[in-house]
């Protein structure tokens, strides 16, 4: 499993309700594709978000977003750097 | 008969040996305590819920018990066709005597001395050691009965405290015993503090106050009450401690601390020598010699009572193997309640360095050799077992003989037993398997029993029953342990049991008055432990026969320095031994562990287990089975249920389905006592474990999940209801009633969201389309899409037509209904374009392009690829553009355009870069097919191999099957017919299951079969297997 990051921007501040609704739609697709949402970071103005996934390939995340009709700007495979070292 | 403590029968002043089978002893205890007739069927349900013939097991147990309790004149154990009962007929049963003395009317009239005598009859918990957690009914009865006996004992002790208050020293003994039974009772602590105050032992009193406060805070998160505060004030108001007062006693919740003043420089207890056993040693030598010359050997199974020397002989097998230039790996089965699938094997294999073993083998064996990073998807149990065989072969070939030792297999789990059977049947040259088991307890474990019987039937087993040592053996062993020891008591009391011989000899050497009982000797030895070792040993005993130093540190909260000192003391005193696995220790014998565990009172045990469970937490899946056990004993049901879920999921990952089911059942039982929400949520996950572990009892499973579904709906827990629905559908599919399954799942979806048909339609379409795109469960996908259409029509709700028709078109493609697929997909592209739904348009175009390629319509494929490329530009970042290029390049190459080979190479590179493994696998298989047609077998095989790996990662069985078929064809073309046959054989299972593989995969398999001259219709058995 690799780590993927999805970048998003919104025209209107993202509400919790909207976030939950997209999350719900995404979850079943992600599961079907063998992918897993790990966490998201929403900016304080609620106009930018970065989401963090674990998936077998980038297409799994991409296809899940598209099937669930959730928009995204960029999806990229990531290398995780922590104090413990590098995780690819 | 004594039941207040370990079950004992005493006749004419001497103890009668009881059957070793725990269930048989439990039966006697149950009949004696309940004191009435029971139906045979009730007794079967109580203790033999599971094996093939419970009534035969009951008959066997009754037959073992009759001669022990009946005599020529009196028949105490009576049984007819329907009933069985135990009638004391004049025999004294300690519990009944205690109850008579303490009955409401009798208590006041009973003299204090009599009460004191009754109190001394309580040697421990009721039927101590007869815990059978897998027999729920007996377990429940036992727990409730113990509670009642504990209450009886508490009222007895309270009565004694109040009667002896004028003699504080005497009262203190009872008050302390009262605290030890129930350390959570503040009232009991207060009594001890007050008595200590009266004795002027202020410092001890204050320590007791602190101990009580700590227990209240740690275990109950409670603050002390005013009563404790008053007692503390009363203490400090007293004059200072009297001179010559007794030294501080240990806190009552701790086991007795060490009293020994022996030098701390005592040498480590030596390994016991091996005496006598000439026949067994000869057998071992023959077996090792045969293995050394790579002749086949039969596994050795040493059987006998605890302490008879099984493990010592296993050690001898290892020693002889090493002396012959070979190596030994060893593991032991874990107590059944821990549920550690492959526990014994993991122990044995993680300690080995596999420098000469191929990486691929290690990857397949990953779950058992210390890493859980399993190989690519598609791994299964047979692959795991094959990998272990290859590991063992590798080790045995490198330095024969290789000895695999598995001890305590009377506790073996189903998965470990299956692997052991598999390895024995593989007849690996140079391998010796040696096991140890308690003969009587084999009957309590059906996996062990089945294994031993099967190997016996196949004449693959050497069963060696160990008899007690004769006089010469006893003398030799006792002298070897303690030279010059007085042999009289050893010969008189040891009954030829080597462990007993050693313990008696050591006790004599210490100058202890020798006890006649092994357990008392062990108790005495443990009581002499110094420093913190006395505390630590009980925690370790609660952890199990093997324990990890890190875990022990975590649960005791001791600093490393103190912990190491304690463990060193335990090693020096011959209580524990460092095991082969890093930082892990074993009790020298399970009887020693049992003795250490016995030192904890039942409530204290609960606290210890609770603390262990919480300290271990649920972060480490590998320990989840342990946590489930500790939390259940400790009474934290919520944690126990969560741990059962985690452990169950892990078992499923390790293909230990039997253990997973056991955990699911145990978890469901526990969850039934939780509050509604926790019960429903926990049960839903536990049913998930049962379903994925392929529980065979489908009707029962269906009933349970249906009930849960209704409960979840009633409680408004829609997520759990959805989950229940999901598993119910799985069960239906497992029954292979596809139509009914689809129908049921749809009905349930509607029921779940009855209030909102629009979202039901939406969910059905999304789910159906998703499955179709993934090429999985196509019949289900179709049923969902059809149902959505019908539901939308009947409720007049709008439907995502593009999404639905895309799903339908893709499903047609999968099933090879290409004309229908083209119609559906073309119309959907048009509609999606009008709705500016570029992605769905691109998906439909991708499939149209694939269909053109598969039909060999190269010009059309180039055209579709062009359309796809145009749409891909609008989509931006994605796999559509690279896939369009790949289709274009492959179509050009097929039509023989010059320079197209390079285009294919760079298009594949593009798909790798965008990381779309499904598309990559598809394109690679086309490229490989062309390479093969052009006679380039090597490149074809290389590409098919990459396609297979990519398809496995994203779980695309059809693409994987095409790749495998191409690999087979490449092998055939290269003259490797066997490899080609093997590839086809690997495809057979999926080919035989309807709806699993696409039409394209079936066609690829047929092409391979044609190459081999086999008709695919009759490949099922004979032609391939011959």
| C-alpha end-to-end distance of chain B | 64 Å
**Mean pLDDT across residues of chain B:** 83
Largest interface, counted by CB within 8 Å of the partner chain's CB: A-B, 21 and 23 residues
Number of helical segments with 4 or more residues of chain B: 48
For the biggest sheet of chain A, the summary is: 4 strands, antiparallel
- Bulk shape of chain A: globular
Q: How confident overall, as mean pLDDT of chain A?
A: 87
From the helix content, strand content and strand pairing of chain B, which structural class follows?
mainly alpha
Residues in β-strands, percent of chain A: 35-45%
Radius of gyration of chain A: 13 Å
- H/E order of the elements of chain A? EHEEHEEE
Which strands sit side by side, in order, in the main sheet of chain A? 2-3-1-4
- Unreliable stretches of chain B: 240-270, 372-378, 751-755, 1018-1026
Low-confidence stretches of chain A: none
Oligomerization category of the chains in this entry: heterodimer
User: Helical segment tally of chain A?
Assistant: 2
Please tell me about this protein's structure:
The complex is a heterodimer of chains A (88) and B (1026). Chain A has two helices and six strands; from the N terminus they run βαββαβββ. The mean pLDDT of chain A is 87. With 88 residues, chain A is α+β, with helices and mostly antiparallel strands. Chain A is 31% helix and 39% strand. Chain B is mostly helical. In chain B, strand 8 (402-407), helix 16 (414-425) and strand 9 form a beta-alpha-beta unit. In chain B, helix 1 crosses helix 3 (54-69) and helix 2 (40-47) packs across helix 3 (54-69). The longest helix of chain B is centred in the N-terminal third of the chain and has 28 residues, at 136-163.
């Amino acid at each position: 499993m690799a780590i993927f990051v999805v970048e998003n921007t919104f025209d209107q501040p993202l509400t919790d309700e909207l976030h939950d609704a997209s999350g719900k739609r995404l979850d079943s697709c992600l599961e079907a594709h063998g992918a897993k949402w790990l966490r998201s970071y929403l900016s304080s103005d609620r106009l930018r978000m970065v989401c963090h996934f674990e998936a077998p390939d980038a297409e799994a995340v991409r296809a899940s977003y598209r099937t669930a009709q959730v928009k995204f700007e960029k999806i990229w495979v990531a290398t995780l750097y922590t104090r413990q070292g590098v995780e690819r | 008969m004594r039941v207040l403590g370990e079950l004992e029968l005493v006749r004419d002043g001497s103890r009668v040996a009881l059957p070793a089978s725990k269930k048989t002893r439990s039966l006697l205890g149950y009949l004696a305590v309940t004191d009435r007739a029971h139906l045979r069927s009730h007794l079967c349900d109580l203790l033999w819920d599971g094996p093939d013939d419970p009534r035969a097991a009951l008959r066997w147990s009754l037959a073992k018990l009759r001669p022990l309790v009946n005599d020529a004149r009196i028949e105490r154990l009576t049984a007819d066709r329907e009933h069985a009962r135990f009638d004391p007929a004049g025999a004294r049963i300690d519990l009944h005597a205690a109850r008579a003395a303490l009955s409401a009317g009798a208590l006041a009239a009973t003299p204090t001395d009599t009460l004191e005598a009754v109190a001394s009859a309580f040697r421990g918990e009721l039927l101590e050691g007869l815990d059978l957690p897998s027999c729920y009914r007996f377990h429940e009865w036992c727990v409730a009965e113990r509670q009642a006996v504990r209450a009886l004992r508490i009222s007895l002790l309270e009565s004694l405290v109040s009667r002896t208050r004028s003699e504080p020293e005497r009262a203190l003994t009872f008050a302390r015993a009262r605290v030890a039974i129930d350390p959570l009772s503040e009232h009991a602590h207060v009594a001890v503090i007050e008595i200590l105050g009266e004795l002027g032992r202020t410092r001890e009193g204050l320590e007791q106050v602190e101990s009580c406060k700590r227990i209240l805070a740690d275990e109950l998160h409670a603050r002390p009450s005013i009563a404790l505060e008053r007692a503390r004030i009363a203490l400090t108001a007293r004059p200072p401690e009297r001179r010559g007062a007794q030294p501080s006693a240990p806190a009552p919740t701790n086991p007795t601390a060490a009293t020994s003043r022996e030098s701390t420089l005592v040498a480590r207890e030596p390994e016991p020598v091996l005496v006598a056993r000439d026949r067994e040693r000869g057998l071992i030598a023959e077996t090792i010699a045969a293995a050394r010359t790579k002749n086949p050997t039969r596994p050795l199974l040493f059987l006998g009572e605890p302490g008879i020397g099984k493990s010592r002989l296993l050690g001898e097998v290892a020693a002889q193997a090493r002396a012959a230039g070979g190596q030994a790996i060893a593991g032991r089965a874990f107590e059944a309640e821990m549920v550690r699938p492959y526990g014994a094997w993991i122990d044995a294999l993680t300690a080995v360095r596999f420098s000469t073993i191929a990486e691929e083998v290690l990857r397949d064996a990953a779950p058992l050799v210390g890493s859980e990073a399993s190989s690519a998807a598609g791994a299964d149990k047979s692959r795991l077992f094959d990998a272990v065989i290859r590991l063992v072969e590798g080790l045995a070939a490198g330095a024969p003989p290789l000895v695999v030792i598995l001890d305590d297999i009377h506790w073996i789990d189903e998965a470990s037993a299956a692997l052991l059977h598999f390895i024995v049947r593989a007849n690996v040259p140079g391998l010796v398997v040696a096991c140890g088991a308690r003969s009587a307890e084999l009957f309590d474990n059906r996996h062990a029993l089945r294994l031993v019987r099967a190997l016996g039937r196949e004449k693959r087993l050497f069963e060696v029953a160990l008899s007690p040592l004769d006089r010469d053996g006893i003398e030799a062993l006792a002298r070897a342990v303690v030279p010059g020891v007085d042999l009289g008591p050893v010969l008189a009391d040891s009954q030829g049991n080597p462990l007993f011989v050693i313990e008696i000899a050591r006790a004599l050497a210490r100058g202890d008055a020798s006890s006649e009982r092994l357990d008392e000797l062990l108790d005495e030895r443990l009581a002499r432990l110094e420093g913190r070792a006395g505390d630590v040993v009980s925690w370790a005993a609660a952890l199990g026969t093997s324990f990890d130093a890190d875990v022990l540190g975590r649960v005791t909260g001791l600093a490393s320095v103190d912990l190491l000192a304690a463990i060193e003391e335990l090693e020096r005193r011959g209580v524990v031994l460092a095991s082969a696995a890093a930082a892990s220790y074993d009790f020298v014998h399970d009887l020693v562990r049992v003795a250490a565990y016995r030192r904890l009172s039942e409530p204290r045990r609960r606290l210890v287990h609770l603390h262990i469970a919480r300290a271990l937490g649920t972060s480490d899946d590998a320990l989840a089975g342990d946590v489930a056990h500790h939390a259940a004993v400790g009474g934290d049901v919520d944690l126990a249920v969560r741990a059962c879920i985690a452990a169950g999921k892990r078992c499923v990952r390790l293909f230990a389905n039997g253990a997973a089911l056991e955990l699911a059942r145990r978890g469901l039982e526990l969850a039934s006592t939780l509050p509604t929400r926790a019960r429903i949520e926990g049960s839903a996950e536990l049913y998930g474990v049962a379903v994925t572990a392929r529980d065979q009892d489908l009707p029962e499973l269906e009933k349970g999940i249906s009930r849960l579904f209704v409960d979840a709906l009633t409680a408004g827990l829609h997520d759990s209801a959805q989950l229940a629905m999901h598993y119910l559908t799985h069960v239906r599919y497992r029954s292979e009633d596809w139509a009914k399954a689809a129908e049921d799942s749809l009905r349930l979806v509607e029921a779940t969201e009855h209030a909102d048909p629009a979202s039901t339609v939406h969910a059905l379409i999304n789910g159906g389309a998703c499955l179709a795109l993934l090429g999985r469960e196509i019949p289900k996908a179709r049923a969902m899409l059809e149902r959505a259409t019908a539901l939308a029509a009947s409720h007049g709700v709008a439907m995502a037509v593009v999404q639905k028709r895309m799903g339908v078109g893709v499903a047609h493609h999968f099933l090879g209904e290409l004309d229908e697929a083209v119609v559906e997909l073309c119309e959907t592209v048009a509609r999606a374009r009008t709705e500016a739904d570029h992605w769905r348009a691109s998906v439909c175009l991708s499939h149209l392009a694939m269909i053109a390629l598969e039909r060999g319509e190269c010009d059309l494929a180039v055209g579709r690829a062009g359309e796809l490329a145009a749409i891909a530009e609008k989509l931006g970042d994605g796999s559509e553009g690279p896939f369009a290029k790949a289709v274009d390049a492959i179509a050009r190459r097929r039509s023989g355009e010059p320079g197209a080979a390079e285009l294919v190479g760079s298009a594949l590179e593009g798909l790798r870069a965008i990381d779309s493994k499904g598309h990559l696998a598809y394109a690679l298989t086309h490229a490989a097919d062309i390479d093969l047609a052009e006679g380039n077998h090597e490149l074809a095989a290389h590409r098919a191999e990459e396609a297979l790996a990519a398809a496995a990662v994203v779980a695309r069985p059809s693409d994987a099957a095409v790749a495998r078929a191409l690999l087979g064809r490449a092998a055939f073309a290269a003259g490797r017919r066997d490899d080609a046959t093997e590839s086809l054989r690997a495809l057979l299972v999926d080919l035989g299951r309807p709806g699993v593989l696409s039409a394209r995969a079936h066609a690829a398999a047929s092409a391979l079969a044609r190459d081999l001259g086999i008709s695919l219709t009759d490949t099922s058995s004979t032609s391939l297997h011959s």
